[in-house]
């Protein structure tokens, strides 16, 4: 990859597009234009950049990365790329597209016309835990939400207060149905706190690693 | 110069109760360190802090305060791991 001060191409995500080039405006890092190039039916969404270290703690940069993806998602299904992926030149981007082509085809089948939605349920402070009852609630949440989604992933329960932390892959035209289901659960279990978020690009359902020694590579 | 240490004795199949006890204490100390300085634990606490703020259970001040403390801890652990300070080097052998 690139060194500090060198120029490179920052890749935000991959979309499917017919056009040779689509411009999303000057919304990229360092105010640069976000545009697409083409590899077969796929188009990496990128911007030119003077290379620097991308730190996950840099909230502004993380925000820029997600803003671009949100903008692209308004019109396209996206295969997300990990935050901080900079390629030295266009040729390396093309090479990674070539090596990742099969995986991208597979991933696009999964994410096309679908979005990721997140649901967290937390228990009230000083909640009197009854593990059996909590397991029942959790099963009910999961089952009901699974019925209105294409796929789901349980994520880390990083706090003892968390009863559920899951991501759901939902058909774009069924988001309202999913939201209604969440609302019904929220009304039924009004002592629990719900956090319903999205739509996100489907990070939890696509995991492609290309041209990287470690898992932090192109994915 | 040959220094007989607990590892060599153990390799020879010799068990010295005093040394074994020290070795067990070191093992326990290492486990305690690993638990205390586990970056995953700190990352989970950072996420929990964010979640409690988003749910309105803590103030912005508490959130920022806890966040900067946890990030400092995480950086310290990462430096600690890079330097490999928990590994003892026998410089006399």
From TrEMBL, chain A:
GO cellular component: gas vesicle
Subcellular location: Gas vesicle
Keyword Metal-binding recorded: no
Keyword Iron: no
Listed InterPro entries: GvpL/GvpF
Predominant place of localization: other
Annotated keywords: Gas vesicle
TM spans (from-to): none
Superkingdom classification of source: Archaea
A family per Pfam: GvpL_GvpF
Gene Ontology terms: biological process: gas vesicle organization
PANTHER family: PROTEIN GVPL 2
Family: Belongs to the gas vesicle GvpF/GvpL family.
Protein name: Protein gvpF
Organism, scientific name: Methanosarcina spelaei
Classification lineage: Archaea, Methanobacteriati, Methanobacteriota, Stenosarchaea group, Methanomicrobia
UniProtKB/TrEMBL annotation, chain B:
Domain of life: Archaea
A Pfam family that the UniProt record links to this protein: GvpG
Record's protein name: Gas vesicle protein GvpG
Organism (species): Methanosarcina spelaei
